[in-house]
Every structure is written in structure tokens, then in C-alpha cells.
Amino acid sequence: MKLKPIPNPDPDLDQPDLSYIYSFLHSSLHHQMNNDTAKKRRRKTADDDGPPGKQGKMKDLKGIITTLSLLEQQEKEDLDRASNDDKSFAEEKQKQTTKTKAMVEHYSDLQGYYSDVEESETVNRKKSRNAATAAVAAAAAVDASEKGAKPGGSGSGHQRRLWVKDRSKAWWDECNQPDFPEEEFKKAFRMGKATFDLICDELNSAIAKEDTTLRNAIPVRQRVAVCLWRLATGDPLRLVSKRFGLGISTCHKLVLEVCSAIRTVLMPKYLNWPEDGVLRKVKEEFESFSGIPNVVGSMYTTHIPIIAPKISVAAYFNKRHTERNQKTSYSITVQGVVNPKGVFTDVCIGWPGSMPDDQVLEKSALHQRAGNGLLKGVWIVGGSGYPLLDWVLVPYTQQHLTWTQHAFNEKIGEIQNVSKDAFARLKGRWLCLQKRTEVKLQDLPVVLGACCVLHNICELRNEEIDPDLRFELVDDEMVPEIAVRSQSSKKARDAIAHNLLHHGLAGTSFL
């Protein structure tokens, strides 16, 4: 019998050396068989019982044979198990390979499909553009052929744009004529033709556009007219669109562009703090009719109604206007300082309507300049809603005023009326300030700033306002919690009040 060593399925496990066992068993069996053969030759007979030694040897032989059989059977089982494991692993690997190939083929087909679709869409877009270009070229050729009979018509005629909606511009064309009545023009745009032309010349470089192959640019005069009409009437954009023969979105864009140009180009020239030489004249004019020295401006804060904003609604809620009008009101503030002629020298625009006048003043650039010492030794006159500061002069607000205090309040009220009248003319000229506008909250300061600049231009050029357009201001003033914030200013105010009364400059209305 030939024995083979059983392979070890797991080399990491410590197992006995089976080949050594097989060799040992084989040599033992062979030696035993030789001994038995020699004994048979010496013995002639043998009984069934035999000697005890022979029976024990036979039992040992049977045990060895049984052990060898078991070892061979175990070897076959191990080989079969290893073969089955290798076969299962090979089948699993084959399945994974087949699945991977199928997925790669699927994605390749899908990528090819999308590439075909994209190529098809590109071809369709090119065809559409070519068709549109051909249509425009054909229309231009027809237009040119129709104008060919006119002198110079074939080369200088404007191409008709098929996609531009045809709107009537008759009203503006009539207003733009030289023989259009001056009064009618002023009623429409709140200024005369000369002032209108001045504004157009100033803004020409900032708002002029060039003609393109798609459309002709809107002239500068029409751009300015759209903006002024919108500010002057406060009409909705759809009415402005019909009036000037332009699209609604175009009108809205023109208003913002012109207002931005006014703020950028004209505000530094027509709305600025006066220089020292001009300030001396301002002091003299205020003192000439009030008797109060060193006054350089009259200050007032008004509210502009707005639509309820989407954010910070409570901040823009105007409680005082709501209670008085019995209607929910939202607003933003405009603080302005004017000279004796009612021309704005400083404005602060855009703080929420819930803020009182003293808080708006504290957040303004004017307050910062005063803190840097630029208003030292001069007065800006304000109403009872402002506190008494080193540079802000306000009337007495306590009860049971003396005759001297009454006389002072009378004179300081004359200075305060200068700024009130200026704001009344501002809102009377530009009706958009009286209505809840369609302009977004973030764009509103630009529009309000443009209105202030246009007001200054009209005032400097003596453009009188129509009496029918006069507006009555209704702005509630709240006395601040701390009305007196400077003891030195308190003494200075008492001295001014004493001089006004005892020098006969005030208090005559009580006599």
C-alpha cells in the first residue's frame, strides 16, 4: 500500500507531521508481516485459539489498518472540501466580473445618449439663430428697398426692429418741441425749459447711451423727462410708460439711473456744507430777521411714507402717524438743514420711522462733524424734538414759561419755519414723497437724495412753485427724555433770550 501525505489546509495551524506517521506505520506493518511468515514456516499447525501473544498482535494489526483507512478517508474529505471552496470562490468572482462589465456597458450607452441629445440641441439652437438672423436681414432689406426711392434713404434710414413693441410717443414729442408753452412745460416737470436743459447738459456724460445694432438709444432729454415726470407726479410706472411710449421696466430703470446720476454728479455741486465765506453771509441773514447771532442753519426732520417692508417691520412702524390717521403707517426719515433761502446744506436720509428726531440726529454725519469740532461757536436751530446741545439751539419746552422765554420761542420759531417751509415745497414739488412709492427700500435713499438736489436747483434758479401744489407738513415732534444736555448752552440760551427782550428785538407781539 502506498501512502500519501495529507495536505495542510491552513498553514498557520500547528498540525502533526502525517507523512512521518504513515512511514512509521508502514515500516511497522511490514516488519510484523515478515515475522508472521517466519513463524508460520516453523509451525505446522495452528489452532483457533492460538497463543495469547498471537491474538494480541492481530488486534494491533487491525487497529493500524483501521487507522490508515480513517486517515485516507479524512484526506479525501479535506481534498473535496478544498476543491468545493475553490469552485465557489471562482464562481463568485465570475459573477462580479460579469456584473461590472454590464454596468460599464450601461454607462457607456447612457453617455452616448446624452452626447447625442446635446449635439441635437446645439444644432437646433444654431438653426433658430440662423433663422432669426435671416428674418431680421430680410426685414432690413425690405425696409431699405422701400426707402431707396428717397434721397439718401438707402444708407441713412433706421432699421425697424420687429421685436420692439410699437408705443405712442406723441405726448413727449409735443412737449419736446421748441414752441411748447413754458407754463405747460413747468406744470409737467416742475421747472422751466432753461432749468431742464441745464440738468440735461450736466448729466449728459453720465447717462448718454450709444445706438446699437439691436435698437436705438433713448435720448438724454427723454431719459431726464421720464425721471422728472415720475418724481413730480408720483404716478405708477404703467402710466409713465403710456405717457412716454416706453416699457414699464425701461421706465423704472431710467428713473433709478437718472436719480443715481443726479446724486453722483449734481449733489457735490448743489448740496454741500457752505464754506467760511458763505457761512458769514448765512449768519447775517438769519440774524437780520431773528436777532439771534451765529445761526448757520435751520433743521427739521420729516417722514416719507413707504409700503410695509419684508424685514424689520417694527422698526419702520410709525406709531404717531398711525394713531393720528387711524391707519397703519410705515415711514423712513429725512433730516435736513437749510440756509435762509430754503436750500439744503445737509441731509440725512433713510433711518426707520420709529426713531425719534434726537436719535436720528445722533446717527447723522452732521453729529459726527460737530463732534470733530467743525461746528464750534455756531448754532443750528431745531424744533422741540431735538435736545439742547453745544451746537443745537432749541426752544424752551417746560410749562409756565416766562415772558423772556416766550419771546425767545417766538424768534426761534421764525428760524424754524424756514426749514419747515423748505420741506413743504420739497414735498409739494415732488408728489412721489407724499405717496407710498413702488421703489424698493434699498433704492429709496437715492431717489430722495435726487429730490433734494432738484429742489436746490429750483430754489437757486428761482423756480417758483405753483400755489396749488403747496403741502402742509404734519410731523409729530416728541420731546426727548433729556432735553438739556449742555449746561453751557443752557446759560447761552438764557443770555440770548434776555438780550432779545431787553433790546426790543422780541416780545412785541405780547404788547
UniProtKB/TrEMBL annotation:
Taxonomic superkingdom: Eukaryota
Statement: the UniProt record of this protein carries the keyword Nuclease: yes
Location of the DDE Tnp4 domain: 300-456
Compositional bias of kind Basic and acidic residues: 73-95
Cofactor dependency: a divalent metal cation
Keyword Protein biosynthesis: no
One Pfam family hit: DDE_Tnp_4
GO molecular function (one): metal ion binding
Keywords: Hydrolase, Metal-binding, Nuclease, Nucleus
Region (Disordered): 29-101, 141-160
Broad class of where this protein is predominantly found: nucleus
GO cellular-component term (any): nucleus
Cellular localisation: Nucleus
Annotated InterPro entries: HARBI1-like, HARBI1_dom
UniProt record similarity statement: Belongs to the HARBI1 family.
Protein name listed in UniProt: Putative harbinger transposase-derived nuclease domain-containing protein
Organism from which the protein derives: Rosa chinensis (China rose)
Lineage: Eukaryota, Viridiplantae, Streptophyta, Embryophyta, Tracheophyta
